[in-house]
């Protein structure tokens, strides 16, 4: 039976506590991405959430990573948190003009994370979702609408048409609503399955041809690691999703099931970085699913301790 591609990785790669633990002692900071990308098959780019990056950065990230590597890119908080989706067409154009497309075949899903204070507003989200490009041709066309601030720092070179996927991470309980899932399905956008130590909603509805997980911590947000039982459970869920099915005990916002697919791709990122759990938890989960990594040895004591 065919299965979707599973990519398991980490959220970000520049963390001081990782140096000398995950990263070899005295490894230059400029070589950390090259090292991490050879240990795990995918990484979320977080810097794009805080500010627009430059095309030269995206090009360097592309060149520093293996040929089969994939990045997810976090959309700007200026759009999600500051503008709260109001009048965001130009900022959205600026984002796609800033160099995201320079990742070329290594561009995976774009992650849009919303603040806990932002409730579900169907009309507002429908307008935003309708603006999102679903392939690189549409992204290039949108990028041409950038404002003058990016006149000298854009990247929109022609290339093969590739899909652009989108995932949405919500943190307000009002999104546990069938109308939200219907909206996602209409626009072919995935809800993020976010494990946040029960702090924010966790929904597992299927609405796209892929599933996107962010594992922020089993018991303590951003800090606690995942034990064998938790990793076994997530591995079983991912295995079902990559085969196109839905888990029997899925936590759902909608009573309407998604149509079964032959397969779904799965992207899973560990964000429990405080105590250096993330890369090792990622490797241990990947091993359960037959996903190769460069981390075959157990985590060091400093990372394994909770």
Which terms would index this structure?
306 residues; TIM Barrel; 31% helix; 14% strand; disordered C terminus
Can you give me a brief rundown of this structure?
Helix content is 31%, strand content 14%.
* CATH topology call: TIM Barrel
CATH architecture assignment? Alpha-Beta Barrel
Count of DSSP helices? 11
Instruction: Report the strand count.
Output: 8
Low-confidence stretches: 300-306
Give the CA-CA distance, first to last residue: 38 Å
pLDDT averaged residue by residue: 94
Report the portion of residues in β strands: 5-15%
Radius of gyration: 19 Å
How many domains make up the 3D coordinates? 1
| Share of residues in helices | 25-40%
CATH superfamily: Protein of unknown function UPF0759
Name the structural class.
Answer: alpha/beta
Name of the CATH first level: Alpha Beta
Biggest sheet strand line-up: 1-2-3-4-5-6-7-8
3D shape: globular
Q: H/E element string?
A: EHEHHEHHEHHEHEEHEHH
Overview of the structural elements:
With 306 residues, this protein is an alpha/beta fold. It has one domain: Protein of unknown function UPF0759 (TIM Barrel, Alpha-Beta Barrel). Helices cover 31% and strands 14% of the residues. It contains 11 helices and 8 strands. It has an 8-stranded parallel barrel with strand order 1-2-3-4-5-6-7-8. α5 crosses α7. The longest helix has 15 residues. The radius of gyration is 19 Å and the shape is globular. 43% of the residues are buried. The C terminus is likely disordered.
